[in-house]
Amino acid sequence: MEPLFTPESFYSRPPSRLRRALPFLLVAAVLVLAAVLWPRGAKEEPAAPADPATNAPPAVAEAPAAPEPAPGPAVEGTLTEEEFAGVLSAARELDAQGRLPEARERLLDALSKAGSAYAPALEKSLGSLSTRIYFSNAPGPDKAEVTVDAPLATIAARHNCPVALIQRMNGIANPNSVQAGRRLVVLDRPKFEVLVSKSRNTLLLTLNGRFFKRYVVATGEGGNTPVGTFRMVERFENPEWETGGRRIPYDGTGENGNILGTRYLKLDVPGYGIHGTWDESTLGRQSSAGCVRMRNADVEELYVLLPRGTPVTIED
Fold it and tell me: Minimal CA–CA distance to 77: which of 103, 109, 104, 106?
């Protein structure tokens, strides 16, 4: 008799329904098991429904917006680029015609409306014009004509105008050789003021409350230049320097250790003043022992212009 069951007979028989369904049953079992054992995370929130009023699409999640930038400084002035160019052109034309006071007035008016982008160029032009006007005997604002009826020092005292400035304006080499009856031009009681900024290392000179010229300077290292309002009480040409109990004479070069340059303007605070320098690389920063340093050519201008008693304000 043939056996009822052998491996060979199993595979040789026609497949039954169970055998045909077995692979599908195995796959289904695996899927069910995977669904049961799979890690469960947080459910995703359904998208917000569209706004029925606007029919807008659902909002898309975005990164938080960056804070708004802090407001910048207010715009300085109203002078436009076109106006700025026009003012410079007009001032050059007036200058070429010899009408320097009118050119200066145009630039001063523009400066009062200029922003930081245009002010430096206007100030540079104004500084040049100011010295040309006030170092000459050409007619101009704040000037007066006088007749020599006394020594030059007496005339200078009457008008609070330094002798050196009267000499410069009128081309006088020797103040003791001016003849009586000569007509001179003087600056009539000028009100110069000096403002030194320690943070900017600049010196602003004004005349009768209006811009005259701005200079680059050096102030005290570590901020040790005193702050306050002082007076310029004395002027020295070719100054000697007293330091460490000894006097170092002026030698015209500074090679002997005299650091004061060609001029010294003494303030009414002991040990401090405005002076020149032999080393211009120290300017534009806080590098001095406490005094205000300038180019020799610049402090020579102040030496000529400033009467004794001129206020000097130093601020941080």
Answer: 109
Do 76 and 92 touch, CB atoms closer than 8 A?
no
Domains contained in the chain, number: 3
Q: DSSP H helical segments within 51-138, as ranges?
A: 81-96, 100-111, 119-134
β-sheet bridge partners, residue 260:
none
Active-site residue, from 259, 275, 283, 294: 275
Q: What is the pTM for the complete model shown?
A: 0.74
- Cα–Cα dist 291/312, whole Å: 12
Whether residue 15 lies inside any domain: the answer is no
Q: Are residues 208 and 311 in the same domain?
A: yes
Asked about 161 being catalytic, the answer comes back as no
Catalytic residue among 291, 299, 302, 306: 291
Cα–Cα distance for residue pair 302/315, rounded to 1 Å: 19
Q: Give the model confidence (pLDDT) of 45-89 as tens digits.
A: 233 333 333 333 333 333 333 322 223 233 467 899 999 999 999
Q: Give the domain-ending residue among 67, 100, 134.
A: 134
Rounded CA gap, 218 and 89, in Å? 33
Asked if the structure places residue 270 within a domain, the reply is: yes
The per-residue b/e assignment along 200-227, b for 16 or more CB within 10 angstroms, e otherwise, is ebebbbebeeebbbbbbbbbbeeeebee
Q: CA angle, corner 315, sides to 309 and 316, nearest 5?
A: 160
Q: For residue range 233-286, what is the model confidence (pLDDT) as tens digits?
A: 999 999 999 988 899 999 999 999 999 999 999 999 999 999 999 999 999 999
Q: In whole angstroms, what is the distance from residue 262 CA to residue 239 CA?
A: 7
What tokens does 311 get? 């206020």
Ramachandran sector of residue 257 (left: φ over 0; alpha: ψ -120 to 50; beta: rest) = left
Give the Cα separation of 166 and 148 in Å (integer).
Answer: 12
Q: Is 275 a catalytic residue?
A: yes
Distance, CA of 206 to CA of 212 (rounded, Å): 5
Measured between its terminal Cα atoms, the distance across the chain in Å is 123
